Please model this.
Amino acid sequence: YKDAPFGRSHRAEIGLNKIKESMALTREVLKIPKDYLVAMVPASDTGAVEMCMWSLLGPRGVTVCHWESFGGGWMTDAEKQLKLPKLRNLGAPFGELPDLKSIDWNDDVVFTWNGTTSGVKVPNGDWIPDNRAGLTICDATSAAFAMDIPWSKIDVLTYSWQKCLGGEGAHGMLVISPRTVARLESYKPPWPLPKIFRMTKGGKLDKSIFQSSVINTPSMVCFEDYIDALKWAKGVGSLEGLIARSTRNFNVIKKFVETHDWMTFLAKDPATISNTSVCLVIKDLTKDQVKTMTALLERNAIAYDIGSYRDAPPGLRIWCGPTIETKDVEILMQWVDYAHAKIKAGEIKKMRIIVTDGLAEGAIKLLKQAGHEVVKKKLTKEELKAGALKDWDAIIIRSATTITADVIKASTGAGSKLRLVARAGVGVDNVDLEAATAAGIMVVNSPLSATNSVVELALAHLLSQARMIPRADRALREGKWLKAELTGHELAGKNLGFIGFGRIGQGLGKVAKALGMNIHVYDPFLPEHVVASLGATRHATPQDVFRACTHITIHAFLSPQTKNMVNSELISLMPGVAPDGTKCGNHIVNCGRGGIVDEVAAAAALKSGKLTSLALDVFENEPCGASPLLQCDTFQGSPHIGASTVEAQNRVGAEIAGAVLAALDGSPPAGNLVNKAVQPKFAPPKARL
Model:
């Protein structure tokens, strides 16, 4: 792309030359007759079709042939928008073509060459007479570059770059015949034409549109991509090579259908089966079961968005255009076979999932779309210990619900369905991992989703401590102007100590380093290269970190070893003076886990002045109730809101929903499975090529 005109005007010579090059390559690859005109127009294939309908229809009767959703859209345009007086609706149900022999060729005829959502194409152009009086307006968006379209039968052909060439969207292509030019110059529509629909000036064809002077500003990036695709097309044999590639892909599915009696083509007539948008019916699965199948394929990064169109029978819609590699279609069909077998055997089925704590509605929707039953319901400790989870395949929790060994014992055994505990968040200290593992219950979490939100909250507390913002706010509300008393300090040049340096710690470390702080770390599990990448100082004990730092942030898990770890002894080690000599005092932030800071000892240290300020987002008991910390002016707290942002809630929900779906259907919940000793039953090697 050395000569790509990125950032240049399409009117500049380099831009115009690129547009001309793309039009010339289009002619060459599609073998467009010399007397036909080619243009790029706005608004993708939709814009191309509608500008022709608005500009050309009206002087004759119109027949709209449609057998899928997009063709149906053109019928709606003709009937509801243009309100054409002489209009014939020639439709057919999914899987069939209408009676094309019944067309009156005195009419203009609007049709799709290939039904993208039904997988039904016209087999050839023999049904279109050469001596027709009307014009043929052909939407070929999923046919161009993959099917043999006889130009003598076509007066208008439209398509977009993103279908068979896999290019960028938003740009439409228009090819018109001399007969179409004659219509444009002899007929003036009775309705107003917006600028992007106008193809004439003063009653004559605006030839500039077909000579690289486009109607509206295009993307030169998209043009460059289109040119690249056209050059690739030439390299694989131009139109013949593209058709051959698509046909090879289709033949993989055709062979599969011939050997699997539970699958058939949606198209009834073999001659009309599309070789690009291949639509299939799965005869022995319900719509919900097909959703389960497609969800499994998406989670394993095998195929995306291949469920059949919403109005079609339960099945699949697989794109087999020329940019697809045949080997990938072969792998896909192995997975389809595997997923079908699992669903029919009952190994992947509708699951019952209970959500006891808050979860984003988007996550619940994802679970339901996969065919599972999802119920939001609070459960008391007593209900949990009484075996309330026995009838559920999975439970999704946040920090409010605790899954103890007693809960797991009561929820397992004969007749129990429970096999998954999902923690929507990072920490799993409210789940007894040992008991869950022993019972064969998977535990998954969402370690990535809230990272940025917690980092920002911890930073907010650090900044708030340094500038004494809570005290300043309270004083103002009390009518006090304490400008002199509220002299704070900068974070730059201060030592910030981390107890625990996982994802959140590292995220905060990067931000703190950018502010000019010196990073000190205690984390016995951390690889040395992580410490080196941030230029941090590593310490062998928590005591060493507290001796070195005036600012401490906690990012460890709660365990017997970390319970009340930050006590009066550790606090007493803090220096109170920064390396630059600033007497900034000692400050601690905990946005990790409640119970790591000894709240009674911390309150005493605040009152004595040894600890200048303390910021907690997490508490030993939540809600915290009448904590002694609330009596300290230099304490600032937040009610466990580290992950309480719109963005984090959506990410947490999506991540945990994906992990739950993967674990329940036997796919690997990569990066989410906490107790790796308990593994779901993965797909056999053949299906996981």
The longest strand covers residues 37-42. DSSP finds 20 helices and 26 strands in the chain. Residues 46 and 348 are 40 Å apart (CA to CA). The radius of gyration is 33 Å.
